């Protein structure tokens, strides 16, 4: 396996020749994107999505927990349906299947860290360390911390001689599971690599912003948070609530089926007269719960580093909920709120403009992991 952690690099590195396939196996649907580099531009060659709900006795838009065999079968069908063939394939690993921690360690050099980190990681990893694959990366010191005293008059947090290291752990069983999906789904391409999904999202979404940015991926079953500061991830968190909880609440409050509630939520969103008001009534409460946890996570970071996030970027299917920016803005009054579009730096056919603009938040992970393939 290649490195689990990647800094956000530009997409115009040496890269693979030929089309690269990016795969995001979400809890509610699989997304695939085929990208190719042509004349120094990244071009969209193909894309597709397949809902997993109906393959596991659940509805479209509902989170599933399918067997490896069923996932492989669904992915194989999706690739067949889209007619995708690729020279190289990359798969994103769900954030919830990984453990990502920032630890403060003495600045003892890489060799020492290599032996120190597995020992240190035992404090954070709840299973025997021999059962996980570990990767780590030294976080560059924040520019603001290089000054003896911050502009705010607050002393820098870190003591001299300490460094921050981001450590990723993935259970070997999870890697085995993805290896077998790769094999059974007959994934095209010479080699396949894995990456934790938030790194894929960030590659596709966050530009060269140096100010602290929060990326919120609202999936079906969970919401993933990543805090990027001075160009690198410095914090992450997962909340076990997502878009399906809004649908479930709407179905209960209106006494309608999940399918019907999902249809209303996706069509009306939180705007419009009657239906929009019904969706708003339930979504407001659920999003408030998600946002409260998000604000707590952000405030911890802001307090620790005497900084303030300037921007919140929303992705994932949940970010397509009409009117969501306004609700999120209530929790982040000093930051700007945007819906992330992973296709902005990708050349796409004009006739797909409207469709892709609609779908784009869902495809952040798939585009991001394919971009990694073009960089490698
Ligand atoms: N137009 C829309 N308006 C509101 N919600 C939407 C819309 N389209 C999709 N969603 C919601 O987005 C969610 C699915 O998002 P996404 O595809 O990002 O999830 P996933 O990647 O499968 O899940 P996870 O990341 O949690 O594993 C569903 O709850 C669905 O109802
Ligand atoms: Mg997802």
TrEMBL record:
Coiled-coil parts of chain: none
CDD domains attached to this UniProt entry: ASKHA_NBD_PilM
Domain of life per record: Bacteria
InterPro entries on file: ATPase_NBD, FtsA/MreB, PilM
Database matches in Pfam families: PilM_2
PANTHER family from the UniProt entry: CELL DIVISION PROTEIN FTSA-RELATED, ETHANOLAMINE UTILIZATION PROTEIN EUTJ
Protein name, UniProt field: SHS2 domain-containing protein
